[in-house]
Structures are given as structure tokens and as C-alpha cells.
Amino acid sequence: MRCPFCSFEESKVTDSRASQDSVRRRRECLKCAHRFTTFETVDLTVQVRKKDGTYEDFSQEKLLKGLLAACYRTQVSHDQVRSLVSKIASDLMAGQVREIGSSELGVIVTDALKKIDIVAYIRFACVYRRFKDIDEVVEEIEAIVPKEKN
């Protein structure tokens, strides 16, 4: 690890702590003795096949951003969203998935959101499924919300 102060190539780890998505390490440069922090994350090399045929790297941050927008002003906490993103990424790694279609990923996310919060699910589904008009949205709501019996 290169020192950000003097660019010396060697440092020693003085403290290491695991967090939910990464490992935080305090390092000390062996030349200038300055201390600095590094964060190590797992490199998830899953390629997402988009609808237009192009590929892009799976991004936990991109998924987090989309889910936070869908969950805005709902009962879903920021921690729940982060946990969901971590679970989806972990499931992809555990399954040793190298490539996944954006539609398959969308189904995984919407199925998980449906169990957490219906409003967040509808918001995410509106973007993911690209509903053409309000009738499609109403059909989706009617399909997931049980009708009241009078």
C-alpha cells in the first residue's frame, strides 16, 4: 500500500476492523511514520446484461441509489436498504454468478421489496418495468393488494 504522504511503498497495519461491506485498516508508513486509513471491499465481478445487449459491472452503489429512491419517505430504513443490497450481492457471489440479465436482477430486487414495503415495490417496479400508463400500475397494485371483502 503506497503512503499518501510520501509515496513509500511499504506500510504496516496497526488496526483492522470488519464492517458490514468492507474491512477498515489503519496503516502506518514505514518511512515517514504517518498514519492513514484504507478500506477494502470485495470485488464483485458480475456483469449485468442490459436490455440493449450491452454489459456493465454490477454496482452495489447503483443498486443502493435506486432502492433509496424507491424507499424515500416509506417505513423502510436506510439500514434495511443497505442490508438488502448486501444480501443481493452476497447471494450473487455465493451462487458464483458471473453474468445476470438486468431483468433477472430486477425480479430479485422486486421480490425482495414486495416483502418489505408495497409502496417501495410499486415505485421500483414503475421504473424497472417501465409501465406505459396508469392502467398498468393499477393492474399491478390490484394483483398484489388483496381486495377488501364487504
Describe the structure in your own words.
This protein is α+β, with helices and mostly antiparallel strands. It has two domains: 11-41, no CATH class; 47-144. The chain has five helices and six strands. The protein has helices at 60-70, 78-94, 102-116, 118-128, 134-144; strands spanning 11-18, 22-29, 35-41, 47-49, 55-57, 99-101. The strands form two sheets. Strands 1-2-3 form a three-stranded antiparallel sheet, with no helix packed on it. Strands 5-4-6 form a three-stranded mixed sheet. α3 (102-116) packs antiparallel against α4 (118-128). The longest helix has 17 residues, at 78-94. The mean pLDDT is 88.
Number of helices: 5
Report the helical percentage: 40-55%
The number of domains: 2
Order of helices and strands: EEEEEHHEHHH
Overall, the morphology is: elongated
Unreliable stretches covering 5 or more consecutive residues: none
Average pLDDT metric: 88
Percentage of residues in DSSP E strands: 15-25%
Secondary structure class reads: alpha+beta
- If strands are numbered along the chain, what order do they take across the biggest sheet? 1-2-3
What is the straight-line distance between the termini? 68 Å
Biggest sheet character: 3 strands, antiparallel
Task: Tell how many strands the DSSP assignment holds.
Answer: 6
- Calculate Rg over CA atoms: 21 Å
